[in-house]
Amino acid sequence: MDCQEEQLVNTICDLYEKISKLESLKPSEDVNILFSQLVFTCIPPNPNIDVAKMCDTVQETRQKLIKICGEAEGHLEHHFSSILTSFEDNPLHHLNIFPYYNNYIKLGKLEFDLLTQNINGLVPRNVAFIGSGPLPLTSIVLASSHLKETVFHNFDIDPSANALASLLVSSDPDISQRMFFHTVDIINVTESLKSFDVVFLAALVGMNKEDKVRVIEHLQKHMAPGAVLMLRSAHGPRAFLYPIVEPCDLQGFEVLSIYHPTDDVINSVVISKKLPVVSNGSVVGGPSCLLMPCNCSKIHAIMNKKKKMMIEELEASREEQFS
């Protein structure tokens, strides 16, 4: 690292020390100020920051910071979901009170565009979102603005989160009929995963590499061949906020695109498709580690001829299923 990058990492580590001393991570003036400073520090794109190459001390701080960010994010969503459900009219008409709502609008549009490009414009009938939380904004944005006939099944391990989320959408005559909530550890969900055309995996489901890969392996085992897995990752200094998903973590999936935003959308997006299983129980091919990360205007994916033909066959098969 050069001096500027070293200073950036030191600033992030200093902020971690301040945040770790807070008595509570629930929304308050001190919490809001420190986390705003952290996001402001991490959000400028810097591809030269590679957290995997940093010393053990920084790696340990990063893991602790991701865990703290996850806890704080949960408190923030719970706080605003509670406020929203107190509105007498439709709470979904007031989502803009959530401070990061515009980010979710941008992220939803980005993920919808990536999905559309990679399934040839087909409209999925059933979508699963794993780790939906008390404020399931991705599902709400996609259901209300982009996938207006799709059914969404939201999975979260926290019953209080699902109770709030269910109450949040209950007043909307359309969304309430297309959105369902399941309180369960996704590791315990098996056969029903085959019914989903697209599965979204939240960034904070599996906060370390081992847990993340364990969830991905479970999804690979039980998702339908040809189904799409959308994951959220992080790049550069943003990896101090969220875990990184590498293409080689996706055994049994074909990685179609990786997109690294450079605006205020923090998460990178990884889109992949489950490969078919052959007669001996193995999968055809494996994750492509020869992917070029996307900039804000283009999506690049390197794919050999055989894999491309396989994807086209899968898409044709999915088209018949959707029709």
From TrEMBL:
Keywords per UniProt: S-adenosyl-L-methionine, Transferase
Source species, domain of life: Eukaryota
Which EC class is this protein assigned? Answer: transferase
Q: Output the lineage of the source organism.
A: Eukaryota, Viridiplantae, Streptophyta, Embryophyta, Tracheophyta
Q: S-adenosyl-L-methionine: is it a keyword of this entry?
A: yes
Tell me which family the UniProt entry assigns to this protein. Belongs to the nicotianamine synthase (NAS)-like family.
- Offer one example of a GO biological process linked to this entry: phloem transport
Q: What is this protein called?
A: Nicotianamine synthase
